[in-house]
Amino acid sequence: MLSQSQTLIAHHVNGHAKVLAGAGSGKTTTMVARVNNLVAGGIAPSNILSVMFNADARDSYRDKLLTTYSKQDCPPVFTFHGFGSALIKELVQRKVIPKYRLETNDYNHYHFALTVLMPWLGKIKAKRRVTLEFISFVDLIKNAIKTPAQVFAEYEISAKYEFFLNAYAAYEAERISKLILFFSDLIYTPVMIIKNDTRLKAIFSDRYEQVIVDEFQDISEIQMLMIELASGTRASVMAVGDDDQCIYSWRGAKPHYLISTFEEVFKNATVFQLSQTYRFGHQVSMAAAYLIKNNVNRSPKLGYSAHNASPTCVSLDLEQVGQSSITRQLNQWTNKGRRLNEVAILVRSYSHALTTELALLHAGLPYFIEGGKAFFETAELGALMAALHVAAGTYKTLDKKTQRAMLLLYLKTPNTALPQDQLTKLMDEAQGDLANPPDAIDVTADCITEAWIKERVTKKGSAWRNLESLNTTNLEDVFHYVVEEVGFKEFIETTSTSEDESEERWAKFEALLAYAKHTGLTLREFMLFLEGLRSGQMYHKKHDNVILITSIHRSKGLEWPFVIMPHLIQGRFPHIPRNGQNIAPIEDERRLFYVAMTRAQERVVFIAPKDDALSFALSNGLDHPNGSVPNDGTRASQFLYEMNIFVSQRADQLMSGEFTLPDGIESDATALNYLKLATV
User: Fold this and answer.
1) What are the beta bridge partners of residue 238?
2) Which ranges of 251-343 would DSSP assign to H, the alpha helix?
3) What distance separates the 2 farthest-apart alpha carbons in the chain?
4) Which of 19, 23, 150, 421 has the fewest CB atoms lying closer than 10 Å?
């Protein structure tokens, strides 16, 4: 049964409309109900176009429609790229454009761009990083519908990449001459062709009576133009979204498309709000309201929990250095008879997951990383382990299968560029003499004719011998020696796609070192300890009742009974790079935090370092820090202040009248407005 707000939207027929739909407000159910009402009112299903942001959302939405319609009669549902692909197909059929080949392989795209860039790359070492930066630049141009120079200036791209401006023209000329479409071209190509041809505009516009667009806060300029062209002058357009959940600004999405641009383009739009959430209770709703009010660039609204929403507990866990609160929280959950697969650990960056992984492995708790690689599956960390095993003298204690795997990782990371056939031959020859891998490496090096590959392979053998002969067992000294001797730092810097990625990858090394130092073990003891954890992870892969670790970006649109947000440290979240450059806009970071906390249904736990300043703020009902929070790696995230957890944790008591706001509580208007809305 629909709520009053949902019913008003479901029965809206004529005229444009904007729906501001908060997290867990039942927007999909409402959109499906509206489609059914439109069809019942006499509009043909084929005249109702729905556009979803991704394939999962499209499939879920279509499945709901298919409970009412046959596949043949179901109203059309597309992703933006799917709709663009359909337009391209028709343009080809009409002989407007030749048939292009869609290239979806990322490596092939990278190689294509690298080839185009070669005249400009010269002696640049970090060719991979520069090439991937260039591909991102191309995507921004095609999402923004601006000139290369405008995009270059707007996104403040480093002056050292000024050659991108000329390279873009070469890239497009080569792409068009070879009749290739990459992913971003699926929207850009048909939209720009139709936009610039009056005859084609007349053909492709005004086909639909109704257009519904989900997740409108995440669209880009080119997607906005696509909707304008599809709707023409005939269709009533309904945009559904939440500007507080706009988290893709790095690829061209901007909240103003939903906040203001929609109503500028689609005049006289009716504005609806789905402010009630059915996903979580008052504690999360109030904490989210306190947090997001700090953003200036947003629509005026206040989300609140429905009367029948189940209670959701908000908890803050301040841990001492070296502690792991996660395992304690998980044990409390399972002691109540709950399952581990009801838990999601959400991280801003996968580098933040390393210490969590090690804590889970140590506790014997199974987990799965979605969208990233687990600690022991990461090539560079695996290669680091191999080198540390050699230095610790524990390599020879490993079983033959593990030794072979470690040798392979060592040889491939950093990459020697050894051809696969020679690498396989080396491994096969070494299989019979794995106790002395440097000899097998030397034999292979002697057979290599390319000088630069020979040099790299020879260096691997020399480094192995040097590691074996180290006369120190100090864990930190060995760690830094290995990193320098094997060349991990340079490898990360030259193969990362950006400075942010380089910093994130290096953070994993530092996290491992910090963890190792905290254990107090000798190098040999620590490597045997790690090997035990690795074996445990292999065993845990067989479990189906596992904890999920994933990024906040991937969590969008999902929900779990128990959400844990670890490593809430100022500088990590919000992200503040150590070099002070490319600082993520604070409003983007706050929206990302908002999305994460609103995934929880029953319980959300925020884990941060022990911080006396935060404890003082909490005990006094403050909703902001006293001045700026230092970015020194020891202080809790400013967002934990902004949520006013003192008041938020008492939201249920405020609702029932068991608690009243004491004098001196800051921003009490937020709590009072919440109570006014939620008690109606």
Assistant:
1) 17, 212
2) 256, 262-265, 282-292, 325-335
3) 84
4) 421
